[in-house]
Structures are given as C-alpha cells and as structure tokens.
Amino acid sequence: MKSLKFIILVLILGTTNSIQAQDWLIKRSVWGSTDSVNADYEHTIEYITIHHGGEIYPDDKNTLEYLKNLQIWSRNSKNWIDVPYHYIVDRHGKIYEGRPLKYRGDTNTTYDPTGHALIVLLGNFEEQELKQEQINSLKTVTAYLADLKSVPSKKIKTHKDYAETLCPGKKLSAYLETPDWQVFLQTTTEN
Question: Tell me: the pLDDT tens digits for 112-122?
Fold first, then answer.
C-alpha cells in the first residue's frame, strides 16, 4: 500500500526524484545558517502545522537575507535555538530548510509545538494573495513530511487550530478548506 501511496504522490506532485532526493529543498548551508544544537528541544513528529509569516512579504525581498536575519532575531531577541519553523516557503514557492526537524519549533503564542513539524508560507494572508507556487510547494513539503513521519490527514492543521491567532490568515485558511486541498490530504495520507 505504501507503494501505491507513493505512486499517487508522484502523479500529484511530479517526478519521484523530487520527493526522494529532496532536490526541491534549499539547505540551511545555502542560506548561511549556523548550527542549532540543544538536546532539550528534541522531539518526535506527530503533527504538521501550517503557518503564515504574518507580515507583508514583497515578492522581490531577498529570502536568503531574510532567513539570516530571522535566525539572528530568533536567537538574540527571543532566546530560541534557531528560526521557529522547520520549512519556509517563499513567495516564489522556493522551499528552505529551517530548524532541524529533530528539534521542536517555537511560537509567540500559547500552544506547545512539541511533536509538530512547522511549515510557514512567507506573507501575510490576511492581506496578501496566496500564490499558486506557494500552494504547490506547500503540497510538496506536506506530502514529504506526511510520508516521512506517517502523519495522518487529521493531524495536518493550522496554527489557529491550536492557539488564539489569525494565523495562517484568512486567504490561506480559505484555500485549506477547498476541495483541492481536501482531496490532496486524503490521497496523500491514505494508508
């Protein structure tokens, strides 16, 4: 059944190499990340949680510089071990490796992110339009994580499902209610 699930993913997302080799992922070393190590933060993934950046993100903003600055701010201002998210999707659909998946993420809200793989789409989806490239990349990384960590569709939710927040914004939230996303979830996480 796992083979059938993978074939469906291939049909939905494209070639098998992109999922297996993660050639879609821009590694931490490319954007200039420094190591984050803290055994106290280690956890096991059981959920996938979708966020938006919460701030207007211009299409021409330099994501590499943004991520370096986010890492510095996260460590110096918040005393976190790294950027708060495990995967970051920019406005062009490029997927960046964030905090190592073995370490729990961080949040400015009240929920405990232990056990959650955190995906953020850059932009403020209360105001900005969601781009098709971001939707495609959200599907890619969600399918990858659901397969890698055996996360069922009922455990793929948004930030506002766990805390009092507008995140991931009304426009991303609206997309996540569409038949397109619901069919994707069902075909991606069927056992």
Answer: 999 999 999 99
- Distance, C-alpha 159 to centroid of its chain: 11
pTM for the structure as a whole: 0.88
Cβ pair 188, 153 in contact under 8 A: yes
Side chain identity at residue 130, one-letter code:
L
The tens digit of pLDDT for each residue in 147-190 reads: 999 999 999 999 999 999 999 999 999 999 999 999 999 998 77
Architecture per CATH, 2-32+42-189? 3-Layer(aba) Sandwich (3.40)
Give me 137's structure tokens. Answer: 């990349």
